[in-house]
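Format notes (please read before filing issues)

Several people have asked whether sequences and structure tokens are stored in separate files. They are not. Every record keeps both together, in the order shown below: the sequence lines, then the token lines. Line labels are part of the format and must not be stripped during preprocessing.
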Amino acid sequence: MSTYIAAIDQGTTSTRCIVFNRQGQIISQAQKEHRQIYPQPGWVEHDPEEIWRNTLEVIALARIKSGLSTQDIAAVGITNQRETTVVWNRRTGKPYYNALVWQDMRTTGLVAEFSAHEAGQDRFREKTGLPITTYFSGLKLKWLLDNVPDLRADAEKGEALFGTMDTFLIWHLTGGPAQGQHITDVTNASRTQLFNLHTQSWDDELLADFTIPHQLLPQIRPSSDVYGEIVSEVLPGVPIAGILGDQQAALVGQTCFEPGQAKNTYGTGCFLLMNTGTELRPSKYGLLTTVAYQFKDQPVHFALEGSIAITGALVQWLRDNLGIIKKSTEIETLARSVEDNGGAYFVPAFSGLYAPHWKSDARGVIAGLTRFVNKAHLARAVLEATAYQTVDVVRAMEQDADMPVQSLRVDGGMVINSLLMQFQADVLNQAVVCPKMTETTALGAAYAAGLAVGYWKNLDDLRQNWAVAQTYEPVMDEAKRQKLMRDWQKAIERSFGWED
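Then the structure lines:
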């Protein structure tokens, strides 16, 4: 048995390769950022070929840093930014257009068109678990088919291939035009709005509604299985054996394998997932029903998800657009210099609001301003906005699942901010648990791959690796908590209906 498992983490801002040992500890890693392309306001694109080159580079760098040979790696897992949509030519491997990123809003007109139905935004929710928004891949793919010259004709001839970033990278890694595997897993498929949660397959009626040719689509596979071998010189002969969308990967990395276990990833946005087991739970409170994971020869497990668009990105906005801080890490010190938010509330609805509100017409507001408020109060309001939005999602999740979130397992870049984590526990009135290993997204992809090749025997092997670094317990009194949440609700309502 080889000594290590590698994970490729293809994210929104960068691509990483992380090598793990059997205890889930990092042996080596490499990372490279890629460009964010903004052709018009609200449009966000990536260059898929740049990401492919970066992927090869970080795999090679991670190996070189620790002197690993191909024989040292038992398998590779892939996790990826979800919903980001790319189409490329089957014979040349060349993309027809840049990848449309999950944040891209150019399909706003299509959202209105498809929502002009008696069921409104929930027109496809019963089948897909998803509302009609700019977020998911199906409308992005439709936009590409309708707007990129020759693409629809090539798609109908079977010359064009669609995928999220996992699909694009696996196709290239396994041989490209000669023999590339055109596959995705159930988690990524469930984010397209073309996947039927009940049949766990592409849905012909949805494809007809979106006018998308079936031959464009990849084969759907479990999240943990041996899909093929890498032919590239960076890791020749090593099997690719795990695929998970990034938030589902973090759920697996946090070993949330029991119904009711939940994790929140604090990154550019926040993504809170609760495992609901093999039971499909429709949401009545503005959440998404999605696939959590499917291990080889096992049934699909489902999750409820609350997606928050802007959390860590708000700290970056404070740094880059207002210049109140020079580095993101400075926000905690500035926020700690005051006792509270001074009455200020920041609703970061820069691109509308995601769960549980789903208000695409909302825009950002700062409410409760007086002459007393200074930049430190604003810094605190920025951090608190992340915690308040998380509370909104957790409360909706508990109602949908009809079970409480006992404690919240957290990961992502913002968990190093102890002021935020303590405030999160206080307004949530529940324990917030930080694991020792915070790279849970890459770890989840490694776990999926390792299970498929027998590197780890079972889920108990994975649970034994999970360890607590710190637990934040709530200490805020109930009256203060209720007042803060009441004022937050007033502020968030002020953001609604801003955009015509």
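For reference, the curators noted about this record: The chain is about 35% helix and 25% strand. The first strand starts at residue 4 and ends at 10.
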